[in-house]
Amino acid sequence: MKHQNPAGLGFVKMHGAGNDFVIIDTRGASQRRVTPALARALGDRNRGVGFDQLAEIRPDDAADYRLEFWNADGSEAGACGNASRCVADLMMADLGRDRLRFATRRGMLEAERREDQVHVNMGHPQLQWDEVPLAHETDTGRLPLDGGPAAVGMGNPHCVFFVPDAEAVVLEELGPRIEHDPLFPERTNVEFASLTATDRLRMRVWERGAGVTLACGSGACATAVAAHRRGLTGRKVVLDLDGGTLAVDWREDGVWMTGPVALVFKGVLSPDWLETVR
Ligand SMILES: N[C@@H](CCC[C@H](N)C(=O)O)C(=O)O
User: Fold this and answer.
1) How far apart are CA 105 and CA 154, in angstroms?
2) Nearest ligand 1 atom, CA 69
3) Does residue 132 register a pLDDT over 80?
4) Does the beta carbon of 241 sit less than 6 angstroms from any atom of ligand 1?
């Protein structure tokens, strides 16, 4: 990414199906590293740039690069599918290639460009519970459930509820309660999905550390895995999210996820603004 500016800190703003990201390349030896305070300040949609996640590009000996992910509240995330696709799009253009490998906290992942879409292999799911023993007001009848929720790890935690109508879920109410349930000591991302065809789901998401977002790639993967294990779908599923459509294919070599990516703008954080970040 050739956007660094010695006077400030260069960044790229992108989104994938409305899941929006700031991307900072700190591979240069003199580059300022991302800290929780910088992520929080930059994630502020009024006083910073605003994003669902910040992706930091780091050097890696065994891969084309390494990615670290930060939520808007300054917490770190082990995985981010849509940001992985956005960064892969930039890096493939820079490297003049259609495939690459990148290291993450959960291990080595791979991405490919096929036609105009970027596909990422999010690795194998970590199956925690097919039915989470969640004692919650979700059982009161206000939100009818199709079975208990499933807990699936995609390098980050997801709690997936199957409901008759995902549109009817008040995400702002249920999301934070489940995110902070004591059953999830590291908090969790929360997905609500309903089956709309044998190979299609409507899904909405509350993200750990970011709140309601328009899409979530790892959440789409977790939901597709849970839907297949529950016998609702095959291994290939299309998911309609608030911000667009993602496709997931759970193959032998891992869970592949694809969808659109868009570059919004490039910018430079001013040294004066950076000074205010403590
Ligand atoms: N938007 C992401 C997931 C982001 C990480 C999440 N909020 C966490 O804390 O695990 C995606 O596209 O996967």
Assistant:
1) 11
2) 5
3) no
4) no
Cα 9 to ligand 1 centre (Å)? 24
136/109 same-domain check = no
Domain co-membership, 153 together with 209: yes
Asked whether residue 207 is marked as a ligand-binding residue, the answer is yes
| CATH code (residue 225) | 3.10.310.10
Same domain, yes or no, for 131 and 247?
Answer: yes
Q: Whose CA is nearest to atom 2 of ligand 1?
A: 80
DSSP structural state of residue 33 = P
Distance 21 CA to ligand 1 centre (A): 11
Residue with tokens 């979530």: 216
Q: Which domain holds residue 19?
A: 9-122+261-275
Instruction: Judge whether residue 121 has pLDDT over 50.
Output: yes
173 is in an annotated binding site: no
For 134-143, how does the pLDDT look when each residue is reduced to its tens digit (9 = 90+)?
Answer: 765 454 345 6
Q: Phi/psi at 200 (nearest 5 deg)?
A: -145, 140
CB 107 within 8 A of CB 120: no
Q: Is residue 2 part of a domain?
A: no
**Residue 125: both structure tokens together:** 């799911």
- Ligand 1 and 223: CB distance under 6 A: no
User: Which structure tokens are listed for 67?
Assistant: 């990615």
Same domain (yes/no): 151, 247: yes
Query: Ligand 1 atom closest to Cα of 78?
Result: 10
Which atom in ligand 1 lies closest to the alpha carbon of residue 19? 1
Q: Output the pLDDT for position 140.
A: 37
The verdict on residue 224 lying in a domain is yes
- Amino acid symbol at 249: D
Choose the weakest-confidence range: 4-8, 11-15, 173-177, 228-232.
4-8
Question: Does 130 or 166 have the greater pLDDT score?
Answer: 166
242 Cβ below 6 A of ligand 1:
no
Based on the structure, what is the number of domains in the chain?
A: 2
Residue 3 lies inside a defined structural domain of this protein: no
Note the ipTM here.
0.98
